Amino acid sequence: MQKIYIYLENGIFLEAKSFGASKTAIGKLVYNNTTFGYEDVITDPSNSGLFVNFTTVEIGNSGINDADMESSKAQVAGIIARSYHDSYSNYRADKSLAQFLKEQNILGICEIDTRFLTKVVREEGSMMMIASTEVTSKDELKKLLEESKSYNEINFIRELSTKEAYIHKTGSWNSETQEYNKANMSDKKVLVIDFGVKKSFLNELVESGLEVEVVPHNIKSEEIVKRFNDKNIGGVVLSSGAGNPNIYKEEISGVKSLISTNIPMFAVGLGHFILALANDLKVEELKTIKSGSHPVLSDKSVEIFSMNTAYKVEENSNIFEATHSKLFNDEVIAYKYKNRNILSCEFTPISGSKIYKDFLSLVK
User: Which residues are 24's β-sheet partners?
Assistant: First the structure.
């Protein structure tokens, strides 16, 4: 392993080891408490532009397999682990994590105090950082970071969104056949507006009984309304994605045009915040990105959902009614809009979640 040098926005300078690509990268530092599925995190478009600091101590043990990728490539700026293991043991694994990161040109950082980095983020908030196997000077790293564009200024949707519409043809993973279920014919079709959608979410929409067509982020609202009025589609889904929702003015305007038509809608992740802004609600940045697994309360039951968000919607009981809240602080994170066929949550529902069935019942 070669040395890698790290400079944080608050002036902290660190040295660690590299097990991924040899390069220089800039991104926003966050921490993630997930204990499994690191390849899902690495390939999730919602994590584009982030340095993900895993709080789990051991990383690499289960290797990488292409079947669990959430998109066609790695999306993060880099990953950080306390201890990396190149040897892996999993019957589904195709390669080591280090091999995958090198193929994808992504930084892998290890032999560093991840607890310290987590504490920094918790106390001071998520911040920009630069890491390099090429530049060793603190001053030079600081200069490069100061000259770079901030995470909140980057339009990730333009890069992440599909360029051409397509029909998603797989459902959830079948452990018996060791492949994804094939999509069944359905008389209920939805358009998924792609802000940076992940594959597993599309799979669950299909598994719930929907026909799913994924369309580019810049699709005209007039086209969607016409297809709905012509009974070609029965609903619209606003996908997850990366970046600051407040800068996506065109997407917000497009969604605002859909709201008045009362087309059934379901929004998750970034889509949740874009929908809120289209309803003239305020969306404010949080100090720390809530990344990883969180217990969520709904109907007196608790589920564990994966969340990756740096924003919060102002609560307004006149516009929506709460359906889900965080178990530990009662923060509302999912709701149904009043007098509208609209469901919205800042997390991606897990497999078999009742939310999918609730949306299916709204689709015409």
Answer: 132
